[in-house]
Amino acid sequence: MKGATFGEVFAVKEFRVLFGSFVLLIAGDVVKMLALSVLVYARTGSAGLSAAAYMAGWLPFVVGGLFLLSLADRLAPRALMIAGEVVRAVTCLVLAYADLPVWALLALVLATGLFSPVFMSARTAMLPEVLPGDAFVLGRSVLNVASASAQIVGLAAGGAFLAATGPSGALAVTSALSVVAAVVLRVGLPHRPPRVAREAGRMLSGWSGAVRETLRVNRRLVGDRRVRGLLLAQWLPCVCVAGAEAMVVPYLGGQGQAGMVLAAAAGGMAVSEFVVGRFARPELRERLSLPLAVLLGVPWLGFALAPGIGWASVLAALGAAGLAYQLGLQRRFVDVVPEETRGQAFGLQSAGLMTGQAVGAAVVGALGEAAGPGTAIAVAGGAGVLVALALAGVLRPQALTAEARPSRAG
């Protein structure tokens, strides 16, 4: 099968709109959480509360992913994405200028973040509709590269805005980026109806109905052996690498050098996503899933030898390059998920990934307290290799492609 090209992907106007708004979203979120962390630290002097503020944007994915994802298939995608940008813009302005106490700041971020998985799911589920076939996989690759690049740019820009305007000014800039993204989405995307008609989704009559429907579909998705296998394959190896990355700062003694190692990891991921997505044919891309998943863990084993900043950066870049293994799973995931629950399926994948990364960071962090950061990083890498080998039956393409696609009616 012939692979898609970047020219074919960017020739689609709707993808260009999704791409541009996604870059604004990621960069804005990085600036927002960095500014909030600095704001909390300036008010409290507590490193723990500052770290909690930085992670607060991730935590709602757990609750939102469990209880609200059905909305992604039962509301119009453009309206959901615009609503997400408006909520983010208003939230940033309140954080910047309402002079709320710290507990209220964190509560606001947690409460408004509950719907983040729904907004993100609407965007991701729209990709197969605007980019059919292998173009969808390349589109995911482009967004992954953009995500890594936007995080690096967002951290640099966030630091510059914080130095020039303080945390309130940086939050105001983030609000402006969200307004721009909302306008881009409104002007650039045509209206698309929900994947499930309103009459067919009576759960919209109340929040309790939305929760029940989300739980029902989540059980249905996880109960399908093929979907469950692909979800685990996308979650578990990343849990281990997240734990390893969480130990980079204490490994380097809290020095600014950690930023170089983490930037190298982001760069390794971006390069690998670009190369595998663009130059590997679809069949090869799927065959690479297992070796790349193993690669995800192997370089982190080298931290047992206490490398310096240079070798640590190389090892982190090589390890993160293995994240391209997920590209070989994307088309198979779309094939086994019923179309009418596609939004919720992508939301469940994202929510599980975010949750798993937080758990992995906590577990490896506890190990680092007991055995030292270098040992903890090496153990996380070894666990990643073992997990990848244990999932070999799913990561090999013949395990799932031999089965028939599910009925779209069920």
TrEMBL record:
<feature type="transmembrane region" description="Helical">
    <location>
        <begin position="21"/>
        <end position="42"/>
    </location>
</feature>
<feature type="transmembrane region" description="Helical">
    <location>
        <begin position="48"/>
        <end position="72"/>
    </location>
</feature>
<feature type="transmembrane region" description="Helical">
    <location>
        <begin position="229"/>
        <end position="252"/>
    </location>
</feature>
<dbReference type="InterPro" id="IPR020846">
    <property type="entry name" value="MFS_dom"/>
</dbReference>
<dbReference type="InterPro" id="IPR011701">
    <property type="entry name" value="MFS"/>
</dbReference>
<dbReference type="GO" id="GO:0005886">
    <property type="term" value="C:plasma membrane"/>
</dbReference>
<feature type="transmembrane region" description="Helical">
    <location>
        <begin position="170"/>
        <end position="189"/>
    </location>
</feature>
<keyword id="KW-0472">Membrane</keyword>
<feature type="transmembrane region" description="Helical">
    <location>
        <begin position="258"/>
        <end position="276"/>
    </location>
</feature>
<protein>
    <submittedName>
        <fullName>Predicted arabinose efflux permease, MFS family</fullName>
    </submittedName>
</protein>
<dbReference type="InterPro" id="IPR036259">
    <property type="entry name" value="MFS_trans_sf"/>
</dbReference>
<keyword id="KW-1003">Cell membrane</keyword>
<feature type="transmembrane region" description="Helical">
    <location>
        <begin position="103"/>
        <end position="122"/>
    </location>
</feature>
<keyword id="KW-1133">Transmembrane helix</keyword>
<feature type="transmembrane region" description="Helical">
    <location>
        <begin position="374"/>
        <end position="395"/>
    </location>
</feature>
<feature type="domain" description="Major facilitator superfamily (MFS) profile">
    <location>
        <begin position="194"/>
        <end position="410"/>
    </location>
</feature>
<keyword id="KW-0812">Transmembrane</keyword>
<dbReference type="GO" id="GO:0022857">
    <property type="term" value="F:transmembrane transporter activity"/>
</dbReference>
<dbReference type="Pfam" id="PF07690">
    <property type="entry name" value="MFS_1"/>
</dbReference>
<feature type="transmembrane region" description="Helical">
    <location>
        <begin position="142"/>
        <end position="164"/>
    </location>
</feature>
<feature type="transmembrane region" description="Helical">
    <location>
        <begin position="288"/>
        <end position="305"/>
    </location>
</feature>
